[in-house]
Fold this sequence. Notes:
globular, single chain
Amino acid sequence: xxxxxxxxxxxxxxxxxxxxxxxxPAGSGPSGTSGLPADLRPVPxxxxxxxxxxxxxxxxxxxxxxxxxxxxxxGAGYLPGVVKRDRNQTEFKRSLEDYLSxxxxxERLAKGRAAFARHQSTLRTLERSYGVDAEIxxxxxxxxxxxxxxxxxxxxxxxxxxxxxxxxxxAFFEKQLIAALKILQNGDIAPAxxxxxxxxxxxxxxxIPTSYQxxxxxxxxxxxxxxxxxxxxxxxxSTAAYLQRNGWTRGLKWGGEAGAPGIPSGxxxxxxxxxxxxxxxxxxxxxxxxxxxxxxxxxxxHLADRIAGGAPLRASFPPxxxxxxxDDRILLQKRLTARGFxxxxxxxxxxxxxxxxxxxxxxxxxLPATGxxxxxxxxxxx
Length: 382
C-alpha cells in the first residue's frame, strides 16, 4: 500500500525542526492539558461550536456513533495556539551538517544505545517478523519522539477539529478527525489518552490518524493498537509494518557514506555541496516514505548505524557562509556562554538562542545587533 504517513510538514518534535516542535513531554497529566501552554488549552469560540454542531451530522453519516461523538468532544474545544503554529510555520532549510548535529547528537546517541539495549528483544523480534532492521526502527523512534520522551500532550480531537474548522487545510484535517474518532470508536484508546503533537501526530513514532488506521498493529495481543502506552511495542511494530508495506527489502542496508566498508551499490547523493557523499539504496527511499526528506532519511540511517556501533562520518563539511567550521561555532558558543550570554549549549548549531546571545553580546559592545556570527566576533571573545 503506497500511503504516505505525512502529507505535509509534520516534523520531528524531538529535533525542534518542524511543525511539532511545540509539543511537550508525555505524561503531563491524564486530561491532556496539564502542562500545556495557555494557547493550547480550549477557549470559547462560537464559530468553532457551530462548526462542530454541523460536523456531528457529517460524522454520523460516516459511521461515527453519537456516543463516540459525545465522549470525544467532552472537554474538547478550540485551541488558538494550534492555528497560530499552523500559520506561522516558516520555510527554512538547515544544512545537513546542522541537521545531523541534532539528529545524531551525543545525547541522542547515548539515549538510543540505552533504549536499544532495554528493548533489544522486542526490536529483534520485530526485525524477524517484518524484515526491517532493528536499529532503523529504533532510530525512527529516536528522531520522532526522543525515544518516547517527547510524544506530545495536545488532545488530538481538539487539535484536528480546530484545524478542520480553521479551514486552511480543512478537508485534510476533517479526514484526520474522522479517522481519530474511528480509532476511539474501535476502543484502541480512551479520549483522554489520545494526545499528540499540535498537528495530530500521535504516539512514540508520531502517526497521523489516517496512517494509524492503515498501518498500526496490535503486536502485544491485548486487543488494542496502543501506540501511546509507556510500553512502545505496538508503536515500534507499527513503524516496522509501515516500512515493510511501503517496500522495505529485507537484508538490504539503507546506504551509507560513499567508500565506507560494507556499503552496497546504489545511487550517489551529496545533499550539501562540499560535504560527505552518500551511496543510497531503495530502502533509503522507503525511509523517505516516513518523512519525505533526504536529510531525515540520512539522519535515520546514520543514527541507526551509530546505535549499532558504527563510526562517525569520515568526510568533513565545508565552512558555513560566515566562514566558520563546526568547531568554530562550538567555540563561539562556549565563549559566549562563558561571558554570560547563554547559547543553550555548544553543539555548533546556531539556532535562535545562539543568535540571541550573539545579538546581546554585540549590543554590549556597541555593535549592530545583527545576530550573525563571524571570525572577527569569535576573535573578539578570545
